[in-house]
Design brief:
It is a single chain. This protein is mainly alpha-helical. 68% of the residues lie in helices and 1% in strands. The protein has helices spanning 3-20, 24-36, 46-49, 87-102, 106-112, 119-145, 158-171, 176-188, 192-205, 210-218, 223-228, 235-247, 251-261, 269-281, 285-298, 306-315, 319-333, 337-349, 353-366, 371-383, 387-400, 405-417, 421-434, 439-450, 457-468, 477-487, 491-507, 513-528, 532-542, 548-565; strands spanning 61-63, 82-84. It has a two-stranded antiparallel ribbon with strand order 1-2. Helix 4 packs parallel to helix 6 (119-145), helix 16 packs antiparallel against helix 17 and helix 29 packs antiparallel against helix 30. The chain is elongated.
Length: 577
C-alpha cells in the first residue's frame, strides 16, 4: 500500500469513529485532511471518493492494519491499532442517545445511557454530562454577569466525571476517547501535569483525534515541556509539532514542518492556512495575502481564519478588498465570530471606531474566549481615547491567552498613554519576551526608557539596537540611535548611525526630514574632523533642498573655503569656485 493510500485508509476509518462519538470538530478536521491528499487519477470516481459508512457485526476490538509504507517520505512511525466497532454492543439505546445529543439535549442523552456498558456508550454519556455542565456554566455566567462579564461559575459535573474516569483508567478499561475527556477535565481543574500524561496516552493509543492533540498543545507552554512528551511516531505527530511550534513562536520550524507535510497532503486547505498564519507572524503580508486569495478561490464560502486575512488587508490599507471580504462573510454567515471581527476591521479602517466596537462586542457575545476580538476591541478603545476600557479589554485578552504578545503590547501602549512608563515598560517586556523578533516592541521599550520619568538612555540605545537588528520596517531605530549618541556627546557613534540610516533611505528611495537631518549632521561632523572632502559631498547634497538647510549648507561650504585657504592644499581637497 502506498504512503498516501495508508493515510487515506486510516482517515476514512477515523472519520466514522469520530462522527460516532460526536467529536465533530475532529471529524471535520480529519475529513479536510482526507480531501487534502492528492487523489490517484486511476481511482478518482465518485464511489471511491465518497465515504461509505457501512456496518459491522464483529465485536469491537483493536486490530492493526497492514501498514508497511510510511505516509510521509523520511518519517517512520509505529503502526497504530485502529478500533473496529460493533454497533450491536451499544444497540438502539446508543442511537436514541446520539439523536438527543445532536439536538443538544445532553442530560437526556446521558440519562438514556445510564445502564449501558459499551465503550462507545460510556464515552457518549460522559461527554454529554460534560457538555451539559458547560452549557449550564455559560448560562450562569450570562445570568450573573451578562454576556461579557467576568464570572467564577464552574462546570458542576467535573468532580463526578473525574472520579468515574479515574477509576476506569486505574482498572485499565478506559478507551482513548475517554482518556481525551479525562485529560480535558484535568486541565480545567488545573492538574496540568497529569492532564499531559493522560492526553499523551490518548494520542498514542488513537492518534487521529485532533481535539486531543489541540488540548495537549495548550499544555505545552515551553520547549522543555514539549521535548519531555513521550509521543509515538506517527504522521499525526507532525501536524501536532507544526502547530505547537507556531504557538511557541518557532515560526520557521513550523513552516518547515508544514512544507514537509505538503508532500502527502498537497491539497490541504488547513495546511495552507497554517502556513499563512506562520507567515503572518513573520509579517510577510504579501505572501499571506496570496495564500488567502487562493484559499477563497478554492473554498469560496470559507470563514475560518479569514479574520487573519482581514488583519492583513487592514495593515495594508486595502479598503476595497476588505470591503469585499466583509460583504462576502456577511452573506455567508454573519453570526460567526470571525465574520464580526472582519466587519469590525472594515469599520475601523474607515475610522468608524464606535461601529467597530459594536461588531467586536458581537463577536464576543458569540464566543467570549475569542482572543482576536478582545485585542482588536482594545485597539479601538485606544483610538477613542478610552484608556480604562482599553486596559480592561487587553487584560481579558491576556486572561484568554497569556502568550498573546499583542495584548501585552496593547497594555503597554495604554499605560504609556496614561503617562505611567514604569507600568508600560513591564508590559512591553512581557510582549518582547514572547515576540523577540518584532522591532516595534523594542522601539516601544526604548521610548519608555527615554521618558522624563526614566531617562535611561543607555538602556534605550540597547533596545534600539535590537530593533535595528530585527528588520525595523518603520525605519525608526537607526535615526533614534544617532540622536541619542549625539545627545550623549558621542559624535563618532552618532555619525556611524546617521550614515547607516542615510544608506538605508537611499536604498529604499525615501526622502524627508530624516534625510536632511542625517546630511546636516554628517556635513558638520566631517567638517569638525577636518575631512573636508566628505563634508563637501554632504553639503552639496543639502544644496538640493530649500529653506534653512540650503543656507546652512552654503554657510558650511564658505567656512570650509576659509579654513582651506589657511592651510596648504592636500590631495583630494577640491572646492567649487
Amino acid at each position: 500500500m502506498s504512503s498516501k493510500e495508508s493515510c487515506r485508509s486510516e482517515l476514512r476509518i477515523a472519520i466514522r469513529q469520530l462522527s460516532d462519538r460526536c467529536l465533530y470538530s475532529s471529524y471535520k478536521w480529519a475529513a479536510e485532511q482526507l480531501i487534502g491528499i492528492e487523489q490517484d487519477p486511476s481511482k478518482f470516481t465518485p464511489s471511491n471518493t465518497r465515504f461509505q459508512r457501512g456496518s459491522s457485526s464483529i465485536r469491537r476490538k483493536y486490530r492493526t492494519h497492514d501498514i508497511t509504507a510510511t505516509p510521509i517520505s523520511g518519517v517512520s512511525y509505529v503502526a497504530t491499532p485502529v478500533m473496529e466497532e460493533d454497533e450491536l454492543v451499544d444497540g438502539d439505546f446508543y442511537l436514541l442517545a446520539k439523536s438527543y445529543f445532536d439536538c443538544r439535549e445532553y442530560k437526556r442523552a446521558a440519562h438514556v445511557l445510564r445502564d449501558q456498558i459499551g465503550r462507545k456508550s460510556l464515552f457518549l454519556r460522559f461527554y454529554a454530562l460534560y457538555l451539559a455542565g458547560e452549557k449550564r456554566k455559560e448560562e450562569e455566567m450570562i445570568e450573573l454577569d451578562g454576556p461579557l462579564g467576568k464570572s467564577d461559575a464552574v462546570n458542576q459535573e467535573l468532580v463526578s466525571l473525574e472520579r468515574e474516569l479515574s477509576t476506569l483508567r486505574k482498572n485499565g478499561t478506559v478507551d482513548p476517547f475517554c482518556l481525551y475527556l479525562y485529560g480535558l477535565i484535568l486541565k480545567q481543574k488545573g492538574n496540568e501535569t497529569l492532564a499531559r500524561t493522560v492526553l499523551v496516552e490518548s494520542v498514542n493509543s488513537y492518534p487521529w483525534n485532533w481535539n486531543a492533540w489541540t488540548e495537549l498543545q495548550s499544555l505545552c507552554t515551553t520547549v522543555d515541556i514539549l521535548n519531555s512528551l513521550n509521543l509515538s511516531s506517527h504522521w499525526m505527530k507532525d501536524f501536532f509539532l507544526a502547530s505547537v511550534y507556531q504557538e511557541l513562536r518557532m515560526h520557521n520550524e513550523s513552516l518547515s514542518k508544514y512544507e514537509y507535510l505538503l508532500g502527502t497532503f498537497g491539497f490541504s486547505n488547513y495546511i495552507q492556512a497554517q502556513i499563512a498564519k506562520a507567515q503572518y507572524s513573520l509579517r510577510e503580508f504579501d505572501q499571506v495575502e496570496a495564500i488567502f486569495e487562493e484559499l477563497l478561490r478554492t473554498d469560496p464560502y470559507r470563514v475560518e481564519d479569514m479574520d487573519m486575512y482581514s488583519n492583513v488587508l487592514y495593515a495594508k490599507e486595502c479598503f476595497s478588498a476588505l470591503s469585499h471580504l466583509a460583504h462576502r462573510v456577511f452573506m455567508t454567515d454573519k453570526y460567526r465570530p470571525e465574520s464580526c471581527c472582519i466587519i469590525g476591521n472594515y469599520y475601523s479602517l474607515k475610522g468608524q471606531h464606535e461601529k467597530a466596537v459594536v461588531y467586536f462586542r458581537r463577536a464576543l457575545k458569540l464566543n467570549r474566549n475569542y482572543l482576536s476580538a478582545w485585542t482588536l476591541m482594545g485597539h479601538e478603545f485606544v483610538e477613542m481615547k478610552s484608556t480604562p476600557a482599553a486596559v480592561d479589554a487587553y487584560r481579558r485578552a491576556v486572561a484568554v491567552d497569556p502568550r498573546d504578545y499583542r495584548a501585552w503590547y496593547g497594555l503597554g501602549q495604554a499605560y504609556e498613554m496614561m503617562g505611567m512608563p514604569f507600568y508600560a515598560l513591564h508590559y512591553f517586556k512581557e510582549a518582547v519576551f514572547l515576540q523577540a523578533k518584532d522591532s516595534r516592541l523594542w522601539i516601544a521599550m526604548a521610548q519608555c526608557y527615554e521618558t522624563d520619568q526614566l531617562r535611561m538612555l543607555d538602556e534605550a540605545i540597547k533596545c534600539y539596537k535590537r530593533a535595528a537588528n530585527c528588520n525595523d520596517n518603520e525605519a525608526i531605530a537607526l535615526n533614534q540611535l544617532a540622536k541619542l549618541h549625539s545627545e550623549l556627546g558621542r559624535p563618532d557613534e552618532a555619525a556611524f548611525y546617521y550614515k547607516k540610516d542615510l544608506e538605508r533611505m537611499e536604498s529604499e528611495e525615501r526622502d524627508g526630514p530624516n534625510m536632511v537631518e542625517a546630511l546636516s549632521y554628517l556635513a558638520k561632523y566631517y567638517k569638525s574632523t577636518k575631512k573636508f572632502e566628505e563634508a563637501e559631498v554632504y553639503c552639496t547634497r543639502l544644496l538640493d533642498y530649500g529653506g534653512p538647510e540650503r543656507e546652512k549648507a552654503k554657510s558650511l561650504l564658505r567656512g570650509m573655503r576659509s579654513t582651506k585657504s589657511s592651510f596648504p592644499p592636500s590631495d583630494g581637497d577640491h572646492f567649487p569656485p
